[in-house]
Automatic annotation (TrEMBL):
<dbReference type="InterPro" id="IPR050270">
    <property type="entry name" value="DegV_domain_contain"/>
</dbReference>
<dbReference type="InterPro" id="IPR043168">
    <property type="entry name" value="DegV_C"/>
</dbReference>
<dbReference type="InterPro" id="IPR003797">
    <property type="entry name" value="DegV"/>
</dbReference>
<keyword id="KW-0446">Lipid-binding</keyword>
<dbReference type="Pfam" id="PF02645">
    <property type="entry name" value="DegV"/>
</dbReference>
<protein>
    <submittedName>
        <fullName>DegV family protein</fullName>
    </submittedName>
</protein>
Amino acid sequence: MKTAIVTDSTSYIPKELREQLNIHMIPLSVVMNGESYQEEFDLTSELFYEEVKNSGKLPSTSQPPIGQFVELFEQLAKDYDAVISILLSSGISGTYQSAVSASNMVDNVEVVVYDSEISCMVQGFYVLEAAKLAQMGEDPTSIVRHLDEMRETSKAYFMVDDLSHLQRGGRLSSAQAIIGSLLQVKPLLHFENKVIVPFEKIRTRKKAMKRIVELLEKDVEKGIPLQASIIHANRLEEAQAWKGELEEKYPTVEFSISYFGPVIGTHLGEGSMGLGWMKRNH
């Protein structure tokens, strides 16, 4: 059975890897200074942070139109028996719902829309695994079952320099609970029930990152082979240094570096740093 894999741009999978594994991607957009830009196509991450810094205004984001999904699904129907579309959490974007609506408008191909319940490279881990399984000829049911198993070991924590982005964008649940004590606090956040919620309040950036490592260590000690991604918002050097430290400390974990691109960066702000991991299957 031939199964196509579709994701959205917030999985931030490098173009070469998408091409190599035949992954199809639908972009979300950011609107800056009245202009709309499709991330990963019209706008690089570096340029985005530079523009935000220069303009001082926070951009807004928009999900892909349903028509874009319909068009892609119909195009894929010519060559594939099925499509699995793995998208960012339905709790922070309407992208998932758009894809579900689009799937109901397409008759000549089976479309499965999968809610990753997260975003960025942790979402990317699901996409890459699905693409490898699809290449091996696995059917959609077994691929989805595999993704559900991966979810059992999936974790991601991130800290932001400034919570106002998330609060303003309505992406942070129960923000009021921590807004009162934000001075000097670097809140550690995570996804819970598909939305971003505070995990712990921590005093400094250094301590927040140390706490993330402690959480990783708990899973490393279970002896499960893990893949992990350091995710940064325009802090590549810091991410590289952190990767070096972590690789030395946890040689059994496969570390990579990814980034918070324009859409997610709009909501988290520059300087954010995260670490996500799950079981490694190969």
